[in-house]
Design brief:
There is one protein chain. 55% of the residues lie in helices and 8% in strands. By secondary structure, the protein is mainly alpha-helical. It has 2 domains: 12-84, 434 Repressor (Amino-terminal Domain) (Orthogonal Bundle), CATH 1.10.260; 99-203, Winged helix-like DNA-binding domain superfamily/Winged helix DNA-binding domain (Arc Repressor Mutant, subunit A), CATH 1.10.10.10. It has a two-stranded antiparallel ribbon. A two-stranded antiparallel sheet has the order 3-4.
Amino acid sequence: MADIKDYNVAFKVRNNYLVQAMRRHGIWTAAELSRNVGIGQHLIGKYLNLAEPPMSPRGGWRPSVIKLSEFFRCLPEDLFPKQHIQKALKKNTAEMEMDMSDVQMITDSQLTPEAIMDLSDAEAIFKAALGNLTAREERVLRLKYFEDMTDREIADQLDLTPGRVGQIIKKAHRVLRLKDTKIGDHTTSGALRESLTAFEGARNGRM
């Protein structure tokens, strides 16, 4: 129970430009917008979730986006974040375990949607890889990366010296880089170094 965090946080990133345009017209759901504009609800859902870029691969606005802009009486580019005009968001949902400091890091920082999703992937890869360690190694890394504890704090809690904690962390890193653990499309041996960097960097507000 000691490793359980206080919060299970689910993120969903949506296209706020389109959301705000809908609200200004008193429209609150994709189904309602579909009825008003004559565009399929599924496609509107993709635009809301940034899963479909408004511009085609050839560089022109999609006909459905033109219809939306005519309905809202604005330019097509007014309905989408500029960074997603030609590039969809890889995914718009994520779920993470967090404590209060993690929640504050997300709410107080300027993390982009992509950074939040990358942080979720990094945490998942890291947690899956922990199964390759001994009980002590796993405990030390969980305290280090998920509880934000220093080597001295870990040493005090586990009745070790800070030097011994550092040795355990180094050994665990070597083991993790040699072991292969599949999670989704990732293999931890190839992705762990990047995942640890992303995980620590995001938690420290550097992403």
